[in-house]
Amino acid sequence: MKVEVKVGNIAEWQDEAVVVNLFEGVKKPGGATGAVDLSMGGSLSKLISSGDFQGKFKQISVLPTFGRIPAKRVILVGLGERHKFTIDCIREVSGKAALQVRDLGLKSFSTIVHGAGVGGLDLPETTEAVTEGALLALYHFSQFKTKKEEEGKDPEAMTIVTTESRRVRAMQKAVDAATEIASSTNLVRDMVNTPSNEKRPRKLVDMAVAVAKEAGLKCQVLDENKMKSLGMNAILAVGAGSEEPPRLLVMEYNGGKQTRPIVLVGKGITFDTGGISLKPQDGPLGPIWEMRHDMSGMAVVLAVMTTAARLKLPLNLLGLTPIAENMPSGTAQRPGDVIRAYGGKTIEVLSTDAEGRLLLADALAYAQKWKPRAMIDVATLTGTVIYALGRRVTGIMGNDQSLLKRLEKAGESVGEKVWQLPMFDEYAEQLKSDLADMTNSGGRSAGTITAAMMLKQFVGDTPWAHLDIAGTCWVHGGKESIDSSYMPKGPSGIPARLLIYMLRNWRKSA
User: What is the pTM of this model?
Assistant: First the structure.
């Protein structure tokens, strides 16, 4: 959908529909909504006074205009209580309105900017949120359907109408940034939705390299022979049970003057059977067919790297995505095996289903050669994070509070909730091994934390943060899952927008 900003009066704007808003409890609409109400002979006021519209959050009504204004329809959307209004509420109501437009079968619509000036929110910021909400809400995936039910139903254009003629350039710049960010989030959704037989390691790497190079990133692919020569035995062990050899994709973006990069590492398991420690049909992460989402971290890192390049962020970034397929076979690693990771540390494999941390161990250790300013890894790592935090909140851990605070602040801004879990030294006791430097599993107790404690052994003194997205990478619907108008069921794209926001504001937050 094309989004652009135009100067005008929404009450005089010609389109298939115009979108205006109302806070809960307001009896007489003002501003742009009031102008539309006046031009329509008080139709909106009558709707409010009758009790049919209260302005409750995401409440929506569609009114025909009967030629009283140039637009054919008015879509009135509720903003909820003013004191609870946030930047994410704008995404929500914008997404709700866009879905209503699609349901009506309209090809174009126009909208005002919801909530500009409320709670200190400025016009470009709210414009960006309006754009993001609409573009994210309209996402659907139909690549493998012969009958594409949604094809042709999406609106083709959204116009943001403003009277602020001096702010149009800033608003359009915000629209362009939001379009890139929404596109990158939807790229994550597409890649995760792609079935695992269509994204085995070599094919997924080819897909990723094509996207990365188009954005201007430098790419290097390490194959099984190169990884063997480097001593990346943890990645190789995970992929040993599959006919498909593993890969490590290295992406570089150099947009800043500093030489030391910020490193992003993303887990890329294209399908996770659990290996010899075979998963049940229905496990804590969900049904086994959903294990195609086990490469969500890899897709997020690719999306963030490409968006950084397209937005020309003034930073140097390095993206590492170890990619493998975890399968049981005669060549698969076994519970009880000891492997020597990159850099020499040894790991006793208690569970082959704790494979993600093995991938990340090699990648995090390898990243040290770039002497990074900070490292952040993203992974669908543990089912226990769902027991701890449910499916609405991402668990974060790390060794640097300032870095974790950056993530928390970014999460608040983009509507992606995070929560820090403790990493007390005592948790490392659960990883002690009689055979090796550590085990790859500390058991079910505090499983999310002990997984992070293992990763901590491979980051040295580098400021580091770990995001466990096992609960938030997929929207299931229902009471226990994320409930958002711009988060349709399926892959969420979390935490691509969070990381992009953090990087865009890296200097401001320093």
Answer: 0.96
